[in-house]
UniProtKB/TrEMBL annotation:
<dbReference type="InterPro" id="IPR025110">
    <property type="entry name" value="AMP-bd_C"/>
</dbReference>
<dbReference type="Pfam" id="PF13193">
    <property type="entry name" value="AMP-binding_C"/>
</dbReference>
<dbReference type="InterPro" id="IPR050237">
    <property type="entry name" value="ATP-dep_AMP-bd_enzyme"/>
</dbReference>
<feature type="domain" description="AMP-dependent synthetase/ligase">
    <location>
        <begin position="113"/>
        <end position="321"/>
    </location>
</feature>
<dbReference type="Pfam" id="PF00501">
    <property type="entry name" value="AMP-binding"/>
</dbReference>
<protein>
    <submittedName>
        <fullName>AMP-dependent synthetase</fullName>
    </submittedName>
</protein>
<feature type="domain" description="AMP-binding enzyme C-terminal">
    <location>
        <begin position="372"/>
        <end position="446"/>
    </location>
</feature>
<dbReference type="InterPro" id="IPR000873">
    <property type="entry name" value="AMP-dep_synth/lig_dom"/>
</dbReference>
<dbReference type="InterPro" id="IPR042099">
    <property type="entry name" value="ANL_N_sf"/>
</dbReference>
<dbReference type="InterPro" id="IPR020845">
    <property type="entry name" value="AMP-binding_CS"/>
</dbReference>
<dbReference type="InterPro" id="IPR045851">
    <property type="entry name" value="AMP-bd_C_sf"/>
</dbReference>
<dbReference type="GO" id="GO:0016878">
    <property type="term" value="F:acid-thiol ligase activity"/>
</dbReference>
Amino acid sequence: MSAEIWPQPVLDLLATGDDRPVFEDGERVVTAIEMAGLVRRITAGLRAAGAGPGTAVALSLGVTAEAFAANLAAFTVGATVSGRSFDAGELLVAEAQLAALLATPDDGRPLLAAGRPADVARLTWTSGSTGRPKGCAQTYAAMSAAWAPYPDRWPPAIAELAPRLRRYLVFGSLSSQVMLEYGILTLAAGGTLVAARPPGFPGMIERHRATGSVITVGRLHQLVRSQRADPADLSTLRALMVSGSPLEPARLAETLDVLGPVVFHGYGQTETGMIAMATPGEMLADPRVLSSVGRPPDVHDIDIRDGELYVRTAAQASGYWNDPAETADVFRDGWVRTRDLASLDDRGYLHLSGRARDVIIVQANLVYAGPIERVLGSDPAVAEAYVVGRPDDETGEAVHAFVVPAPGAIPDVARLSDRVGRALGEAAVPRSIRVIAEVPLAPSGKPDKRALLAG
């Protein structure tokens, strides 16, 4: 691990960047030295408000230069930082509070990272589709060990990706893992963060002359169809980092054919960060790579136990916030249990074959089958309920449900869909609900969900 504590390398980069543009929002261009000034003022404001090591800061902010500076400032004072409310004693920073922080006079103190290595630096949250999102707790030691701000640590795939991020689109939340991680990579590579106004593919690429962006599988399918039907000018595009769920080889080949050599097909988890990535060059040179999610970098440890993938990365989370049971299940002796089924081929490429966890990824949101089954099963007309996921052009994957009716009852499909939506949210609503007489069984005697998918 570097002797520097996060986010010191980024603070140093900004302090020495002078007039180099680092954030663009419409006609407004913020230079490195201007961004450093914003960080300094917000840091002084946070200190004056009592924020420091051991305190909690929740950021409820949009995508602006000031919001990016607020993220860095909250880390600078050494707080535990989250993009959502998480602690009763937290300092909540929304737009009004941010304006007050910016009005705080400079306290003259040096802009030095104050985080303590063992303290939790950041909470990034898994999907709330179960009704209980989990906060992945990453320490300052872990964040300080990350490769993003250090070009000499970049794995080969990242070294190929980074120069393509000259104009990296940011949208959603600057507190999210992918936006912050690739945003820092962009700055370290000499690029500029560009606020997408409004977000949406392909318009925001064309409108902002973007060279790089993150995209989910569902939106990637939509972009490919759009380019076939009515092509937009994507001539500036150099890198699309696909997130959310793996792409099928045929779909990936089609995407490279339509969009060109710009797709970086990666695999990672909130708990670990990037685990593996395949570059466009690798996929075009060898079609066998299309069936993989890339090659894990040498700095990662990979172990496959009974078909299930375990990984160990320098910057991984250390557990779930206030959730010892889930922490014990996933974080084991320094390893992260991914709950994904995987294999490594003889060239070191990682192949995913399914999920040990019963989860469906809808527009990059984790939707758990169990809670949906329980909601469906609570309907008086349903005796049994089973939920599976299928690849879907719109959302990456989609939820499909199978229900066995209670004796003498006829399940109302519309009512069941409404029940799920009200209980778990729109992403969990099944794309289809099929009434079946009985569920097929595997040789073990357990319900055979693969047979349901094949039926």
